[in-house]
Specification:
The protein is α/β, with parallel strands linked by helices. The chain has one domain: Rossmann fold (3-Layer(aba) Sandwich). About 35% of the residues lie in helices and about 25% in strands. Strands 1, 2, 3, 4, 5, 6, 7, 8, 9, 10, 11 and 12 form a twelve-stranded mixed beta sheet that branches. A hairpin with a 5-residue loop joins strand 11 and strand 12. Helix 6 packs across helix 8. It is globular and about 50 Å long. About 15% of the residues have low confidence.
């Protein structure tokens, strides 16, 4: 009997159409998400747990005199040794620790951070272990850290581990330690400057050995305050080595925070050496840096990390003739970042450890992200087309 119900035919037609459509989908090309190499993905810091603590490891090279006869722990003295000592150490971090005022003694007293295993290493063993750590890292990289005036070895090591932990980036960290813990007076500061200069060639030898014997794919160097003087003098020495002064640049990025280096010295030496040795350089500066103000008064010179603000044009800094001179020659490789708007750190000087915005920007610098990707930065331009970035708070 013939079915004359029109609804039946509509249902049958719809069913056949859906069947044909689904069959066709098997041959329709489907767009898939792009594939990423595992080594390109974000990698967080390696650590192990010990009770409630997280334990991070770092390597160190120090120019200090070390006394091994003072009980179970060696004494790292504020004196320059005849040779560089190598080692590795573990640092225990309480996971409640947050980015903020960095006072190593107070954090240690409150049980938030403390040194654990400290092992002196023979030079060859040091290179062997550091090489293994670099080859096991996602970017086959190393981050060399140099701090400035005031702190002893223990405090400096805690600061390095704190920086490593808060940066939360998986790369071996090498602390280059020098006897910067001199008396907190004019004479002590001047002595620290002379020891920084004397330690520079020793840092150069460490860098040269790492590059020659391990050959990391990425070499990053960061220094703060008077530690930047150590790096400047290290570059002065590296520039005399034929294999470093050649056209190839062995260092990927140098990042200087609150650099306690005279502008004249930077103009005379460091610019040409940087051009020969490093692919990129970033300088973080703050016009309200009180520590560099005192340093400039003591040395009767203008400091690289504390530019003066023009009274008639306060949004533009006076670095056009200094820092920005190099940027105008090679704007793709040189970046100037003013952190004044976010600088709430101790003495307006310790922002490299105490400002979250600094960590975010630092992470993007070493991975090569363009400055305009960072929402914490905005751009100011000069009349001569040189420019610099100003860091702003996320609040």
């Amino acid at each position: 009997m013939e079915n004359r119900n029109p609804g039946f035919f509509y249902t049958l037609a719809a069913f056949l159409a859906c069947t044909l459509f689904l069959a066709g989908c098997s041959v329709i090309p489907i767009r898939t998400s792009p594939k990423y190499a595992l080594e390109d993905l974000y990698k967080r810091i390696n650590y192990r747990t010990d009770g409630r603590y997280r334990v991070v490891s770092l390597f160190y090279a120090t120019t200090r005199t070390i006394d091994y006869a003072q009980g179970p722990s060696p004494e790292f003295k504020p004196e320059l040794a005849g040779e560089t000592t190598y080692g590795s150490l573990d640092v225990r971090m309480d996971p409640r620790l947050k980015i903020g005022t960095m006072l190593p003694d107070k954090l240690k007293k409150n049980g938030l951070i403390e040194l654990d295993k400290n092992e002196k290493l023979d030079g060859d063993v040091f290179i062997e272990r550091l090489s293994a750590a670099i080859k096991a890292s996602p970017h086959k990289s190393i981050l060399i850290v140099v701090f400035g005036y005031k702190d002893g070895f223990e405090s400096t090591a805690m600061k390095a581990a704190y920086f490593e932990y808060m940066l939360d980036f998986n790369t071996p960290v090498l602390l280059f330690d020098w006897p910067g813990d001199q008396p907190l007076n004019i004479g002590g500061y001047l002595k620290a400057r002379s020891l920084a200069a004397a330690s520079g060639p020793r840092l150069a030898d460490v860098i040269a050995r790492v590059v020659r014997e391990i050959a990391p794919e990425k070499v990053w160097i960061t220094a703060s305050s008077l530690g930047c003087q150590v790096v400047s003098d290290a570059f002065d020495t590296l520039y005399t080595y034929p294999d470093f002064a050649d056209p190839g640049r062995e260092i990927d990025h140098v990042l200087l925070a609150a650099p306690d280096v005279s502008r004249d010295e930077f103009d005379d030496k460091f610019k040409k050496e940087f051009d020969a040795l490093s692919k990129n350089l970033t300088a973080y500066v703050a016009s309200d840096d009180n520590a560099l103000l005192m340093s400039g008064l003591i040395n009767q010179e203008e400091k690289l990390g504390r530019p003066r603000v023009r009274i008639k044009d306060p949004e533009q800094l006076e670095e056009t003739r200094g820092l920005l001179y190099l940027k105008s020659l090679d704007p793709e490789r040189f970046t100037v970042i003013d952190v004044t708007p976010v600088n709430k750190s101790s003495f307006k000087h310790g922002y490299c450890l105490e400002c979250p915005e600094f960590y975010d920007d630092f992470y993007m610098r070493i991975l090569g992200a363009k400055p305009n990707v960072n929402r914490s930065l905005y751009l100011l331009k000069f009349k001569n087309d040189a420019d610099y970035w100003v860091m702003q708070s996320a609040d």
